[in-house]
């Protein structure tokens, strides 16, 4: 049954996010046709809504995947950085992903790798230094014990035993110095008689020099006092004597002199000197014509750690100079106030 009446056709038009309703009066004789047209429009609207829903879902999936990829790549890189750190890699570079939290974690990992690298490097240096510093006094002590075992003269035995005791004391000082370095304790600076240290080293190295048919000449000013721990001074000069014995020729010369407030100890020999290609790098680790190359580097570090310096004054017929502060009442007072 057709209803002869007028009706309102409602059209919804979105304007800036709101819906505006327009009403129009339809003629009564077009009710059936308009009813059919309304059903078709509803189907079209449902189809449009379905297409829009599918399109929105597809766009959402694309955006989600892109966001997941943007987050997954930095996390993968961060995991790789952590794996390298766990595998023992000494240094890693911080990531720059643009994600603040991930970049912060990466910076912490990079800082930890730097700390680990420094700690491992210090441990390796300490092991190498300890090996080298203990090897020289132990070799000299062995020579003394061999001298004692090869003689029946009580006087010689007594002299060699006294020298061996002095060497053991120096060895104990070297161990104390190494332990202090391991614990990062500052060295205890005190006034040391340069004459007594050189005389002890002359006795200590006499068997090795005699075996090589060489000798040591000590000259210069006497009665000098220097500010440095005795074990450190003995180790530095012993390294210079050992270097001369290994690479030089003729007489080993040890000369002491004043230069203003500084005491200079010069060690030289009659050899060909230091090769030009290594002269500029002679105090670097692993730079040596033979051997480990640690000796002069250690000697330089010991000098610098005790407010002195060790230099190669002349490459031709090698001349090394050890510069130390002379001990005086004023310098001792300043040292005690530290």
UniProtKB/TrEMBL annotation:
<dbReference type="InterPro" id="IPR036890">
    <property type="entry name" value="HATPase_C_sf"/>
</dbReference>
<keyword id="KW-0812">Transmembrane</keyword>
<dbReference type="Pfam" id="PF00512">
    <property type="entry name" value="HisKA"/>
</dbReference>
<dbReference type="Pfam" id="PF02518">
    <property type="entry name" value="HATPase_c"/>
</dbReference>
<keyword id="KW-0843">Virulence</keyword>
<keyword id="KW-0418">Kinase</keyword>
<keyword id="KW-0472">Membrane</keyword>
<dbReference type="InterPro" id="IPR050980">
    <property type="entry name" value="2C_sensor_his_kinase"/>
</dbReference>
<feature type="domain" description="Histidine kinase">
    <location>
        <begin position="129"/>
        <end position="328"/>
    </location>
</feature>
<dbReference type="InterPro" id="IPR005467">
    <property type="entry name" value="His_kinase_dom"/>
</dbReference>
<dbReference type="InterPro" id="IPR003594">
    <property type="entry name" value="HATPase_dom"/>
</dbReference>
<keyword id="KW-0597">Phosphoprotein</keyword>
<feature type="transmembrane region" description="Helical">
    <location>
        <begin position="41"/>
        <end position="64"/>
    </location>
</feature>
<dbReference type="InterPro" id="IPR036097">
    <property type="entry name" value="HisK_dim/P_sf"/>
</dbReference>
<keyword id="KW-1003">Cell membrane</keyword>
<keyword id="KW-0808">Transferase</keyword>
<dbReference type="InterPro" id="IPR004358">
    <property type="entry name" value="Sig_transdc_His_kin-like_C"/>
</dbReference>
<protein>
    <recommendedName>
        <fullName>histidine kinase</fullName>
        <ecNumber>2.7.13.3</ecNumber>
    </recommendedName>
</protein>
<keyword id="KW-1133">Transmembrane helix</keyword>
<dbReference type="InterPro" id="IPR003661">
    <property type="entry name" value="HisK_dim/P_dom"/>
</dbReference>
<keyword id="KW-0902">Two-component regulatory system</keyword>
